[in-house]
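User: Second chain of the day. Same drill as before.
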Amino acid sequence: MFKSSFKVKNPNKVRVVIVTDSLQPWNFGGKEERLRHLSDSSLKVEESNFEIFYATMKWWTGNPPANHVAISKLFPMYYRERRSIKQAIFFSISCFKVIRMRPDIIEADQVPILPIFILKLVAILCRASLSVTWHEVWGRQEWLEYLGRSGLIASQLESWALKLPNQLIAVSIPTRFKMIQAGVPEDKIELIEPDIDHQSITRATTRLPSTDLLFAGRLIKHKNLDLVIRSVSLLKSESMLVTLSIVGDGPELSNLKRLTRELGIENQVIFHGFLPNNSDVWGLMKKCSIFVSPSTREGFGFSVLEAHYAGEKIIIADHPNNASSFYLNDSEDVISVQESTPEAYSYAIKGLLPSVRASTQISENQVLNIYEKYEKSWAKNLRKTRGAS
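Assistant: Same format as last time:
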């Protein structure tokens, strides 16, 4: 049931409905962190021409949080190691309920892709503008690697979905470049890079123990965390005991735990699981020596840039689909690993561990209020849409 507040529109406000299948504090990842920053920064704006509501799955029990509405039941987001197609279909069908929220602007998320098609129809019926935040452009080859022959269908859906929004928001320069390569007109793309919570990282503390290495993120296959675990085992065979903290949850958790047991390094690896307090994560970034991110696919890389701001040495995968390497490759405190092998990561770890930890920070000037950026983007989108109608 929708609350009555969704039925009454403020005539002085533009209603923005943000449609996403997952949000913090119930699920954590790049898009969820981006939306958290958007929500937090919107509260700091005293006067705004926009009112924001969130349409998502029913993550909560009891009454919903303020400005949140469940448009679908809670379905598991993953089936084995991949995003669930069943969940994407059910959530897509549920997006028809956004009509009842009477949006002026629909702000959707690229993941999963299927809801974009329904939301385009909803936007037409509501005479609303559709804006989609795009994290990664995959293309035919990556979809084939992810889904096999079914990737041909997914690749075509991605290509069609890129043509539907009135406006596309790219989360990084590499993503924007790939969107243009895919045929999206440049004037249809707004670049809004995510915020980093500088003040909270600076204040963060934790009682959790420090280790030599730290990984924080969703435990899914393309994060390639098994490479780091195998590198720890290689270093042990060279009489170098290296400790590793792993923060996060995901479909690969049981496989990674099993791997540490098989390699006999379970005493060197700490699985923290999901940490509900961000201060613990940022505190570990400030206490541990090296942040390792072997992921070959990152739309932006929140945790890597947060770790860099916290002063950690960084080891990342040098891969064209990893936006983190685009932003940090020139830093002297970052090693980019070209080969996806345990040997390559063990070599990088040996090179960094003896070094003196430097205090490096990303300039505050690089990060503006993300809500203000979205406001400008929405306003521009609305002017274009209404001017064309």
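Residues 356-368 have pLDDT under 50 and may be disordered.

User: Great, on to the next one.
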